[in-house]
Amino acid sequence: MGDETHPQAQDIVPLGRVAGYCLAILSFAAAVIHFAVAAGHFQQYWLFSLSMLVIAWLQTIWAVVVIVRPSRPLLRAGAVLNAATLAGYLITRTTGYAIGTAPREAGLSAFGAVFCAAFEAVVVAGCAWLLTARAEHYVRHQQLIAVPAATAAMTAVVLGVALATAVRSAPGASAAPGARSAAGSMPGMRMPAAAAESIRLANDTPAGDISMPDASMQMMTGMRMASSAPCTATPTVAQQRAAVGFVDASWAGARKYHSLAAARAAGYRPITPTGADVVHYLNRAYYRAALDGGPVLNTADPQSLVYANTPRGAVLVAAMYITSRGGPTPQPGGCLTQWHVHTNLCLTSVLDVVGAVGPGEAPCPPGSVNRVTPAMIHVWFVPIPGGPTAIDAPDQQVVQAAEQVAAPANGTA
Hints:
There is one protein chain. By secondary structure, the chain is an alpha+beta fold. The protein has helices at residues 15-44, 46-68, 72-94, 111-132, 143-168, 193-197, 237-254, 260-265, 284-291, 395-402; strands at 12-14, 138-140, 223-225, 268-270, 278-283, 304-310, 313-322, 340-342, 345-347, 353-356, 369-370, 376-380. It has two domains: 9-168, no CATH class; 193-402, no CATH class. The chain is built from ten helices and twelve strands. A hairpin with a 7-residue loop joins strand 4 and strand 5. Helix 1 (15-44) runs antiparallel to helix 2 (46-68) and helix 2 packs antiparallel against helix 3. The relative contact order is 0.12.
C-alpha cells in the first residue's frame, strides 16, 4: 500500500511476514527432532529412518525458503507436508506401525515426539491462517525481530527438552558396548528393579518366562551389543505381546528341526567346530534371502540354528537370526529383544568360524580374517538364565539347560 494509507510505511511490516519467520523456526525445530531420532528408527525398520530423514530435509528446506521467497504455493506445501507428517504420527501412535518388520507399538509416545507434533500442528494452523486471511495486517518493524527472537528462544528451550527425551526413548535403542561394570553386569541394561522384575511373560517354549535381559549375566569375551545406545525403556504392553508372539512363532517354526537330520536335509551346515559343546548351523540360502531384502526375523526359516551336544545327543537350543552388515535390527519386543555382535572371531569368506583372537590367542588362520560379525539375536528353547530372549550364555550353561528338556535321538552336532 502507498503512504496515503500508511503515513509511516517505512516503520511497518506485514504481520504475515512476522508469522512466516516464526513458522520457519518451528519447522526447523521439528526437522532437528526428526534428524535426531532417525538413527533409532533405523534399528526398527530402515524405511522409518529414511522417511524421518526425508521429512527432516523437507522441513529444513521449507523453513529457509519461506523466509527468503514466501509465496502462497509455498504456504500450501508447508501445510500439506506438516499435516501429512502429523497424520502419520497420530496413526502410528493410535493403531501401531503397520508396515515392514517394525513392531506395532500403539498407545504410547515419547515426550519429544509430542513436542515435534505440536510444532507441526502450529505450522499447519499458521499456514492455514495466512492462506485464508482476507486482508493484510501490519505491525511495527521492530516486531519483525522481537517476535521471531522470542519464538526462537522459547523453541530452543522446548527443543532441548524434546531432544533429550526423544533420543533416550528412540525405538530400537539397545544396550551399549564396552567394559562390564564393577559388579560384572552388562552396561546400559539397568532399569528400575521393580519394573524389570514385574515382567514375566509366559510362552510356549520350555525356556521359561520371557523377562528383561539379566543384568547379572556377563557378556562373553569378544561380545558387545549391536547398538551403542543403552536400551533401558520399560517395554510397552504392545511390545510385551509382540515379544511373546515372536518367541512362540520361533518355537513353532523351529520345532521341525529338533531332528538334526531334518535340519541338515533342509540345508543347515555347521559354521563352528563340530563336536564342541555348542555348535552353530547356518542355512546359507535363508541367509542370502535376508541379504536380498527378505525379512530378517523369518521365524519359519531362521538363518541359523544352535545345538548343544549332551550325553544323549544333540539338542536344539536356539534359533538365531542374523542381519546383513549394517542391516535392519528390528526389535519387536523393544528392550526384551536386543541384538549383539562378536568382535573376536576369525571368519572365512563363507562365514565359517575357524578361530578367535585375543590375549594369548594365535592370529587368525590363513584364509580367515578377524572382523565384527553382522548383528544377531537368539530365541532360546532351553531354560538358560534370562529366558527365551536372553542375550547369550556360557556354553556350559547352555549344555546344562539342554539336558533338562525332552529331545529326539540325535547324533553329535
